[in-house]
Fold this protein.
Amino acid sequence: VNSRYSHAKPHSIPGTLQHIGARRLDVARMSVIEYDEQRCVVRDVTDPRLCRQPTAAKQVTWLNVDGTHDPQVMEVLGAQFNLHSLVLEDVMSAGERPKLEEHDNNIFLVLKMLDWDEQRGQIVVEQVSLVLGPDYVLTFQQCVGDVFDDVRERIRQSKGRIRKMGADYLAYALIDATVDHYFVVLEKVAEWADELDVEVERAPQRVRPQDMHVLKRELLFLRRAIAPARETLGTLAHIHDNELISNGVSVFLRDVHDHVVQVTETIELMRESLTSILDVYHAAAANRMNEVMKLLTVISTIFIPLTFVAGVYGMNFDNMPELHWQHGYFYALALMAGVGVATFGYVKWNRWL
Amino acid sequence: VNSRYSHAKPHSIPGTLQHIGARRLDVARMSVIEYDEQRCVVRDVTDPRLCRQPTAAKQVTWLNVDGTHDPQVMEVLGAQFNLHSLVLEDVMSAGERPKLEEHDNNIFLVLKMLDWDEQRGQIVVEQVSLVLGPDYVLTFQQCVGDVFDDVRERIRQSKGRIRKMGADYLAYALIDATVDHYFVVLEKVAEWADELDVEVERAPQRVRPQDMHVLKRELLFLRRAIAPARETLGTLAHIHDNELISNGVSVFLRDVHDHVVQVTETIELMRESLTSILDVYHAAAANRMNEVMKLLTVISTIFIPLTFVAGVYGMNFDNMPELHWQHGYFYALALMAGVGVATFGYVKWNRWL
Amino acid sequence: VNSRYSHAKPHSIPGTLQHIGARRLDVARMSVIEYDEQRCVVRDVTDPRLCRQPTAAKQVTWLNVDGTHDPQVMEVLGAQFNLHSLVLEDVMSAGERPKLEEHDNNIFLVLKMLDWDEQRGQIVVEQVSLVLGPDYVLTFQQCVGDVFDDVRERIRQSKGRIRKMGADYLAYALIDATVDHYFVVLEKVAEWADELDVEVERAPQRVRPQDMHVLKRELLFLRRAIAPARETLGTLAHIHDNELISNGVSVFLRDVHDHVVQVTETIELMRESLTSILDVYHAAAANRMNEVMKLLTVISTIFIPLTFVAGVYGMNFDNMPELHWQHGYFYALALMAGVGVATFGYVKWNRWL
Amino acid sequence: VNSRYSHAKPHSIPGTLQHIGARRLDVARMSVIEYDEQRCVVRDVTDPRLCRQPTAAKQVTWLNVDGTHDPQVMEVLGAQFNLHSLVLEDVMSAGERPKLEEHDNNIFLVLKMLDWDEQRGQIVVEQVSLVLGPDYVLTFQQCVGDVFDDVRERIRQSKGRIRKMGADYLAYALIDATVDHYFVVLEKVAEWADELDVEVERAPQRVRPQDMHVLKRELLFLRRAIAPARETLGTLAHIHDNELISNGVSVFLRDVHDHVVQVTETIELMRESLTSILDVYHAAAANRMNEVMKLLTVISTIFIPLTFVAGVYGMNFDNMPELHWQHGYFYALALMAGVGVATFGYVKWNRWL
Amino acid sequence: VNSRYSHAKPHSIPGTLQHIGARRLDVARMSVIEYDEQRCVVRDVTDPRLCRQPTAAKQVTWLNVDGTHDPQVMEVLGAQFNLHSLVLEDVMSAGERPKLEEHDNNIFLVLKMLDWDEQRGQIVVEQVSLVLGPDYVLTFQQCVGDVFDDVRERIRQSKGRIRKMGADYLAYALIDATVDHYFVVLEKVAEWADELDVEVERAPQRVRPQDMHVLKRELLFLRRAIAPARETLGTLAHIHDNELISNGVSVFLRDVHDHVVQVTETIELMRESLTSILDVYHAAAANRMNEVMKLLTVISTIFIPLTFVAGVYGMNFDNMPELHWQHGYFYALALMAGVGVATFGYVKWNRWL
């Protein structure tokens, strides 16, 4: 599916596991981090049945899965963590819209992870699904490489408060890392918009309308990826009656929500600014056209009558008295000079040019 | 009714049965599927009085009617399933807006079934009405051929959970099949929009404004068919106090609602992208115009003064000293060359062209 | 008041009866229909005091008044049916916005009755006010001729359920007749829009911008007349705690509301489509301009240099060697042909034209 | 402050009395009307301490103040009627937005009084502040001359019900008089818009774009003055739990609210119509441009090649056989006629013009 | 970060203190004002541990911090006033969106302080964070220089009621000073918009499209800084159940909210007016283009045919009878005059020009 308008394809049987989207990874890679305030164990897992181990009380388990295309792996994970079949289906589908679902024993969240592809100069969107349970967090990504390294480091080195808090704080930290990366991508797009902005003020003729279209389209795709997350995280930040999220963490989630709101507002700002840039572009193009037309008109208006006069005295009639005057030629030159100056003056005086 | 703005015609007496819309089928075709976890019976019915048979407990009856133009058939069905006269009226009217009505003993839902007509290159809209009762689902379509074959197959072959669930899950499966087909149609329109997108970036002059208008109109019609379904299915997914829909099925209905939301957002995205494409088109057209005008201006600006000089020395005055100079002709040629180069240089230097 | 932006003029004293709007009828015509399941009496009344007669239980009285300009008649009617002075004032004012008011003993509704004036090719708007009491319905119109004939016929001939139902069903039937007529007017406008649509695809140059403006303005007026009715009828359809409207009739009112929603959505659809048509028109006009400019440029670019060459050899210098060559003329012709072909080829090669 | 974007200037100390806006009146003029069903006393007051006199029960006092620039007068009035310091501050500031405030012992309302300045052809806005207490109404205006004369007359002559009702009805009557005058101003603007509408249909070239801008700006200012009043009066009309407003008067306030809604909708209608007029204007300007270009192209396309032919036979080569043919001249004329007709025919055949 | 789209950069660890934004000040400057009705002490502090001193009952402490880049200072202050780590983080980040957070023991508010940079002719935005506790107010600014001098003066000189009120009134006074300064900035922008308005009416050709773009962009940035404050202050003004804000102060906060609403509406008004100005600009540019084209067309249409006639009689055929007529030359001149007048008349008659 190459179209950037692409989306979840229809599944044949609801609740049947089926990978949708490009198969970016051959084998699913699973890595588990188990930690509490004292200990922290990191291990890679190949057999999904080993993901969940009987753990001590208050220990938090974070399972990250890269590659969601293998139905068998997903089914085992679903059984282990007691996931609804629709959750598994959404995890495997790449084109889901950011959304939040409260299930009996967990909270399911779909977000978009954004990155900037320097080479192609466009935004890369990857889906990240997150399941928050009482003492575990599951994250599912389509391919290797994410924005969670910083969180992993903080857990390992016990930076900040993360090791003292529960699974809900871990979920917050992961959402926060995802949203913070939006700013990095936004910064790239802002540079692009700033360049256009400067260019259109300095030399509008160098801006290609196609460039503006490409930026506008990129902003549209950016908004499609982020805008639903605004509503989703707003809902998440204001859940009060779910024991999976403690009050202390709600404050942090509201902070993330503020950041998403900021991102969406900046996107809107850029879109409106781009519309204004387009207006300038059109106006400048019309002005250049005017300049060209004026030049043509000045030249034509002055010389066409003079050429006519020269043509008259180039006629071959036998009886043309002026031709035989002593200074006829010079009178004619003077006449032409006079007509030229008069025409030019008349045009100037009327401010037509 | 050829107009694509067409709609339900006024009925003379409310509650009087009257077919509205093109009569696409001569005789109504009724087919009944009765199933429970163990058994599944499929039969075609010609006499509407035989549609409902005394059934064992927990058995689900699905009656599909192709062709809704015969008032007598509809009246018998209405009596058998205890339908409100307005429900029958809406079923028979082809131009209804997607809507949801909760009646005492059933839930009535109107949706649009979309298909892509490859030959005419446009979207075909058909209305599908669905009545969900305690142990039955009725579906009414205007003509033969639908997107339900997959559901029929799943019932017959007992794929997935469908045979274990009640009538509400069957209704969900049918709605889901309808909405999934929206993605197929959307994919076609997305291809179309992508082609325009690529074309306008590569060679804007080849794009015809009419093409953009046709796509835009198609998107408008698509939105009209789908947008109200967003609200309708949202309401359906959040019904909590109606015993016709069990909690287990509500989760699935919310999933369908998410898909419809995704479809409507993609339509909006395409519309905005199309607006941007139109801007590029206009800018490119203005640019081409500029190019043409510049060529005309260059040629005119250089040659009009030269032609004037030639005209002067083509005059027939007796006394024109230059004409008798030994190298007058060559001086004139040099003068003309000089004027031409000077004009061209002046224009270039001023960056008028 | 000729302006189509016209509206209710300020009244000097609130609650003082005063006719506003063109006085279209000399004398108010009142007709009364009294009916129950068995009987139906139709009578014309000239004395407003005779409108309400002591009636048997369960009998419904429908009083229709054509012409609302006579304050004395209105005052008597107001006293007979116990109407609020503001209701009478609104009935007499022609420019009221569709609205709904619940009073102690009745429900007051203002709607617009639309018709299509074939001759002038524009929509005619007439105000219809409706008062629903426990056992009566009053309708007030500005001039003779309405869309209620069908309802009258159904009462007289006892078609459908109307004779078995109360005053609330009669009110519904009248509102339904009014709204159904919107579709007739909309059909006319849709034909108009379709014609423009076809025309702009086939031959955009034949479309006049004024035509598009007239249609757009007509749509704006249509929306002004209908859009508030959407909200008004929505409120009416969801009144639950008023004993004047029974539950059985609420279902029908919701149906009417659906129809009004459909009408307003179609109007919006047409407006957006019209915007798109305008874009095509502008693009097509720009294209034609481009064609004309290209023709001018081709001719000028080829012939202006050739004319210059001819001018050179038309000069009268004594010493012009080429003139005396044996085949000078033919060389010149060849030169000119060469320049012409070269210019044309250069332009073509650069794809400037 | 000449800018029409002007607004309340920052006050240095909140609650400190300070006049903001042009000082239109030298001395504040106070006039008091005291009335009940039997009596009515009108008196002009110069000492603000005499405004409130001990009155009989059920008597209503209306104090109107023209000129709000004198802090001392305002302070005395504030003490007499027990007004909040922010109320006094708002009364003295000319650029307040229409708003409603419920205080402990009174309701404070700010509205805009509009008038049409025939000479300058623009809308004049004056602020009117209204305080409704249990048995009094205070109105504050910036300069002499208002739309309340009709209300004064009705009180004096005991027209309608005004003398029988309380202070809340008086407040309604004053608001109603203000809003009714909006229609007068709107009528002027509607005439203006109608003229533009007719002009653009008949002779678009006579319409100046500046005229449309001026009207649009006037509509924007009109909307700014009125739109907040829509919300304000809506709130006022739906106050249920404030004993200052009786139920009987609420019905009247809802009527005023309906009128304001009508005004704002008409303003929106005009704005959209104006946008459409602008489209027509642009299209018509482009059409005229096209016509001019076509003329230029026809003349150039036909005559430029002919002039070239004439130039060829004006060359002075010794050996030009055609020149010595008996009928060479006539052949040349025929050739030129043929070329001209062929060019014209070719252009016509291609429908380029 | 030079981009005006800039925003809060992602923080590595939530709750970790880190300054974001340009470091405008080397050392944080802290000044404390402690006052009650009788006393008022002003002191500058360098050690953050000395900011809060045990105070008498009912005394209000206002701590203003200029420069928020030093994590150590911020940490000490956070500990002293018991601030949430996210509050400290937001205070140190320069790109926060205006927002309101209710914490257990304080209310945290972020606003934008605006100023007008005369030299660069653009708006300068600085973030001001405010923490309201039971008996203290903290304000944090990025650099020295603010709009609070007036409030300081009022406290010192005990002007108005400020010394008699609590910390909530002080918070109000500071918010009010911030919002009042919006009007000063708005006045500057309004002047700018007025100039453009006048210029475009008088001489549209002098307006540069870039100027309009710059103003539009400035309005967009203004709106981004202020619009969220509208919602924020609205929430603040309607907090009822928080004992930090007394009822008496709520009235004042509603007044500030009204002012912010006024500012945002004026910004919207300017944006719409600017759109209209742009329309006039485009229309005027098209008109000038038309004028230039008409001049070119008049000259060309008249002289091109005449030049052709002169060319014909400049041909050198042996047998051209007209050349030998006695008055041939004068007949030719008359013919040319006739053709010129006829062409001009034809064009005028057709109103092509």
